[in-house]
From TrEMBL, chain A:
Keyword set, alphabetical order: FAD, Flavoprotein, Oxidoreductase
Cofactor(s), names only, from the UniProt record: FAD
Record flagged with keyword Flavoprotein: yes
GO molecular-function terms, A-Z: flavin adenine dinucleotide binding; oxidoreductase activity, acting on CH-OH group of donors
Family: Belongs to the GMC oxidoreductase family.
The species this protein was found in: Runella rosea
Key word GTP-binding present: no
Domain Glucose-methanol-choline oxidoreductase C-terminal residue range list: 434-554
Protein name, as recorded: GMC family oxidoreductase
Domain Glucose-methanol-choline oxidoreductase N-terminal: 105-343
From TrEMBL, chain B:
Pfam families recorded: Gluconate_2-dh3
Signal peptide: 1-25
Protein name per the record: Gluconate 2-dehydrogenase subunit 3 family protein
Keywords: Signal
Length: 571, 209
């Protein structure tokens, strides 16, 4: 390859961040704010804040199929269609077309991707919970997998830091199982949810609280300075929020990084590998392929943050082969690509409630209720380890109830315009244990149109998850029953696959020992200290709470450490 | 990413938390014919018939009806783009059945009978559909917080029957149309706030989203 020195200089930055999603955005913000010149490489197109949100202001009737997926999209988005919602018309344009980005499944895996500026930070459910102290110790206590190299206290100040900036609304509940944070004012429960809250506490001693969600309810100057405003309660979040009310790269971290004038965002750059200098024993940069022109270009930096999301971040290292690392960069432990975790869901209960007929609500709350874990907590002991929480909500039914009802005509129409009865659903979010046989590999010969080897998934639920699901289903029904619900329908969609939670984790886990882990306590690749990974790949176990807030905290912590080490000339 | 909120978005688009099934699932191994795709269309006579059936389900009252809201063309578009060949065929068969029933009872096509006669025929179709689904052991199965599936014995029922398709698509098409959403329901594009617990006002319509 021809490279002149000037060109190489032009392609040289202090840091390269691969990926612009939730964790990549944070890496870009933290590193630029600490004075580094940063190149953020995004494999997809640029989706600009507000103007890039194509459907954000559309009324239902402005969508040809009123939001429903059509047959052609269902074929093209063959993985996305399994979720039941990502292929819907109003936000499909922000998800990846699976036919253009194929992958292989030894065991089925629902891999839901969003390749564009902001990535899935535009599409996430925004539920934001701290892990608790036990979450970091459970592996060691139970002798499962390996121990985390960090504890809650290592992350606590960073949770504080990212919560204040992101803007997490929620209520302080004073629970060990769900540590409180720096919250924006909580959203309100509706009257049926308030009733259920008091009943499950009174009869079962369980907590129901409003979801802790990354939405501004009372923006502070730190938020308004970036152009962010309070939630408008449209609940159209997955189209992109023109108010910047929920936390996304576009609304929050990208404008903060841009303010420093030290960020360069390069779109359409697929990172194929990390460049490794055997003499220096460190990574020198990354190789990219332009997704449109296929042009190959190398970029150089002192440090590299891999934030491409769990599977691609680990893939990049697997694909970075040298004589020093014949099985992939930093893969001496053979743990790269292993221990894929997710949260298992698709199990819970719903029911109808007679009462509160004269009560309604106003606005579409972009949030639900949360019932924190209570199983295997305190004195409770089950025939499985770990636990689960529930997310759900109560609402009054609308015309949808008419589909299964008999009748038609003027009176039927009138009834359908009226407010229907109350119902409520709660769905379990269960912890998946790390298991090194749940893994992905790169196919030896099959490649995508950019010449990158195809990802092959071989991962599934284990016995612990299956046992847990029994409680997840029965407990949900019991709680609704305790609160006086009727027509309770308990469900367990046993056909759901790993991946459906869209919380891929664990493919380059953190650990104390380079023999059994890929990353150290500061998210550095053990064997190549100037590569950091702070997305889902880094997770050593999965907890039962949503992981994104933890990615943010890990990223901010690792970025501070990296800059410190750079100053000390340790990197 | 959180499923609950996203699933409730689906439900909201479908008219609130669904107490009614939204998807028909068929037993293991049931071979669904591929979509007829672009080939599907109604004749002008079928178009008129579909619009008439939709208007019977959601007639014009003090608020616009299915015809005002363009439900007929919407049903044709949805069947063509979003449904499989089996459902498309069921729908066409259902339309032919309406004429057959009208001819048998009144010696003329459905569109030539009186409105009262048409209502009687549709009531008969509804009754038959209820029986049909009962015989196929329809079971409502929860697949998500707000998403239900109906599982049926696929040997006894091939695809969603005509009347269920007509009714679901009419309700969906009407209440998500500009006419239906803004005139028959309470459409609030930007609420700006959330009040969790407020008295239901007299005459309050359900929210459109």
């Amino acid at each position: 390859m021809y490279l002149n020195i000037d060109a190489q200089k032009e392609m040289t930055y202090d840091a390269i961040v691969v990926g612009s999603g939730i964790s990549g955005g944070w890496a870009a913000k933290e590193l630029t704010e600490k004075g580094l010149r940063v190149l953020c490489l995004e494999r997809g197109r640029d989706v600009k804040h507000v103007e890039g949100y194509e459907t954000a202001m559309k009324a239902p009737w402005e969508l040809a199929h009123r939001g429903r997926p059509d047959n052609q999209s269902a074929e093209e988005y063959w993985a996305g269609i399994r979720t039941g919602y990502t292929v819907n018309e109003e936000h499909r344009y922000l998800f990846e077309n699976d036919s253009k980005n194929p992958y292989l499944e030894t065991r089925p895996f629902d891999w839901i991707r969003a390749y564009h500026t902001g990535g899935r930070s535009l599409l996430w459910g925004r539920q934001s919970y701290r892990w608790n102290e036990e979450d970091f110790m459970a592996n060691a206590k139970e002798g499962i997998s390996i121990d985390w190299p960090i504890r809650y206290k290592d992350l606590a100040p960073w949770y504080d830091y990212v919560e204040r900036f992101a803007g997490i609304s929620g209520s302080k509940d004073g629970l060990d199982v769900l540590p409180d944070g720096q919250f924006q004012p909580a959203m309100e429960l509706n009257c049926l949810e308030k009733h259920v809250k008091s009943e499950v506490m009174r009869k079962m001693g369980r907590t129901l609280t409003i979801g802790r969600v990354a939405h501004l309810t009372k923006p502070q100057s730190i938020h308004t300075a970036l152009g962010r405003a309070a939630c408008q309660y449209r609940n159209m979040c997955m189209r992109g929020c023109p108010f910047g009310a929920y936390f996304s790269t576009q609304a929050a971290t990208l404008p903060a990084a841009m303010k420093t004038k030290r960020l360069t965002l390069a779109n359409n750059k697929i990172v194929s590998e990390v460049l490794y200098d055997e003499k220096k024993g460190r990574a020198t940069g990354v190789r990219t392929i332009d997704q449109n022109t296929l042009e190959v270009k190398d970029y150089y930096a002192k440090i590299i943050f891999l934030n491409a999301s769990a599977i691609p971040s680990a893939s990049i290292l697997m694909n970075s082969k040298s004589s020093r690392f014949p099985n992939g960069l930093g893969n001496e432990s053979d743990q790269l690509g292993r221990n894929i975790m997710d949260h298992h869901l698709g199990v819970g209960a719903s029911g109808t409630y007679d009462g509160f007929e004269d009560q309604y609500y106003f606005g579409r709350r972009a949030n639900g209720v949360y019932i924190p874990r209570y199983r295997n907590w305190g004195k409770d002991k089950r025939d499985y380890v770990r636990g689960f929480g529930y997310q759900g909500g109560a609402s009054r039914s609308s015309w949808g109830r008419g589909v299964g009802m008999e009748g038609f005509g003027a009176a039927f129409k009138e009834e359908m315009t009226e407010v229907g009865g109350w119902n409520m659903g709660i769905g379990g979010f269960g912890e998946v244990l790390p298991n090194e046989n749940n893994r992905f590999t790169l196919h030896p010969t099959k490649k995508d149109k950019w010449g990158m080897p195809l990802v092959v998934f071989d991962a599934g639920y284990g016995e612990n998850e299956r046992k847990m699901r029994i409680d997840m289903k029965n407990d949900a029904a019991e709680m609704l029953e305790a609160a006086g619900f009727k027509n309770i329908n308990a469900y367990d969609n046993t056909k759901s696959n790993l991946g459906i939670g869209i919380h891929e984790m664990g493919t380059a886990r953190m650990g104390k020992d380079p023999k059994t882990s890929v990353l150290n306590a500061h998210n550095q690749v053990h064997a190549c200290k100037n590569i950091f990974m702070t997305d889902g790949a880094a997770m050593t176990s999965a907890s039962c709470v949503n992981p994104s807030l933890t990615y943010m905290a890990l990223t901010a912590r690792a970025a501070a450490f990296a800059v410190d080490e750079l100053k000390k000339k340790n990197l | 990413m959180n499923r609950r909120e996203a699933l409730s978005r689906v439900a909201l688009l479908m008219g609130g938390t669904l107490s009614a099934p939204t998807l028909m699932a068929f037993g293991e191994g049931a071979a669904m014919p591929p979509t007829a795709g672009a080939a599907f269309s109604f004749t002008p006579a079928q178009q008129a018939l579909v619009a008439e059936v939709a208007e019977h389900i959601i007639p014009r009252t003090s608020t616009p009806g299915a015809k005002d809201a363009g439900v007929g063309p919407f049903i044709e578009l949805m069947l063509k783009d979003c449904y499989k060949a089996q459902e498309q065929q069921n729908f066409l068969d259902g339309l032919a059945d309406l004429d057959a029933k009208a001819t048998k009872a009144h010696g003329k096509k459905f569109m030539e009978t009186t409105s009262a006669e048409q209502v009687e025929i549709l009531k008969q179709v509804e009754k038959e559909t209820t029986e049909l689904m009962k015989n196929a052991n329809v079971q409502q199965v929860k697949v998500g917080d707000n998403v239900d599936k109906e599982v049926v014995d696929s040997k006894k029922l091939k695809g969603t029957p005509f009347w269920r398709l007509a009714k679901e698509l009419t309700l969906f098409g009407y209440f998500t149309s500009e006419q239906g959403a803004t005139k028959a329901l309470d459409y609030v594009p930007i609420p700006g706030r959330y009040d969790g617990c407020i008295p239901l006002k007299k005459g309050q319509k359900a929210y459109a989203l």
